[in-house]
TrEMBL record:
MF (Gene Ontology): glutamate synthase activity
Species name: Carabus sp. INB100
Domain Glutamate synthase central-N, first and last residues per copy: 1-203
InterPro entries: Aldolase_TIM, Glu_synth_centr_N
Any one Pfam family match given in the protein's UniProt record, by short name: Glu_syn_central
The protein's name in its UniProt record: Putative glutamate synthase 1
Lineage, highest ranks first: Eukaryota, Metazoa, Ecdysozoa, Arthropoda, Hexapoda
Gene designation: Glus
Length: 203
């Protein structure tokens, strides 16, 4: 917090949403490893950006997708078990992978998606407790995040980057139904959406 408060529009020269993702090195021991991360202009990922991250081989890195859903048949008790399972899975996979994608894509009639905020917070703190958090990036692939507030909460709970896939797919569907200008490409839709989110985050 600044006093007087920074105006994100008039003073944008001193504000940035750039975010580095990937393993961090010890800031108390300066080395070239501290800059060997992926630098993004903002934390919002397009559908194609996420696919690139999932397949990245940058500096020998690899990505692992955590399925943040659990079987409907497990009922309410299945939630706690799924959270514990995912925390342990994240800790285990952080040894050999540098990017962990927490995804609710598998949600459906037979699988219940876990709240992205809940599972992100659980994994984030579990990795801190096991001293693995600085070894990996946590990327969220979620249908829940739609508004600026949703994105800000996820960032505050430890997300390095977020792909709000349902919002982007919905916009593309509206274009196909002629509710949006048919000339809007996926890239234009993403740029408009991400710019609105970025403005909200900065404000």
């Amino acid at each position: 917090v600044t006093n007087p408060p920074i105006d994100p529009f008039r003073e944008k020269v001193v504000m940035s949403l750039q975010c580095p993702i990937g393993p961090e090195d010890n800031i108390l021991k300066p080395s070239s490893k501290q800059v060997h991360r992926l630098w993004m202009n903002h934390p919002i990922l397009s559908l194609s950006d996420l696919e690139v991250l999932k397949k990245t081989t940058h500096r020998g890195w690899s990505t692992y997708v955590l399925d943040a859903t659990f079987p409907v048949a497990d009922g309410p008790p299945g939630l706690a078990k799924a959270i514990q399972r995912l925390c342990e899975e994240a800790e285990r996979e952080s040894v050999q992978h540098q990017i962990l994608v927490i995804s609710d894509r598998m949600g459906g009639p037979e699988r219940v998606p876990i709240s992205s905020l809940l599972i992100l917070g659980a994994i984030h703190h579990h990795l801190i407790e096991t001293r693995r958090r600085m070894r990996v990036a946590l990327v969220i692939e979620t249908a829940e995040a739609r508004e600026v507030h949703h994105i800000c909460l996820l960032l505050g709970y430890g997300a390095d980057a977020i792909c709000p896939y349902l919002s982007l797919e919905l916009a593309a569907s509206l274009r196909e139904d002629s509710a949006l200008n048919a000339t809007y490409t996926d890239e234009i839709i993403f740029q408009n959406y991400s710019q609105a989110i970025q403005t909200g985050i900065a404000k």
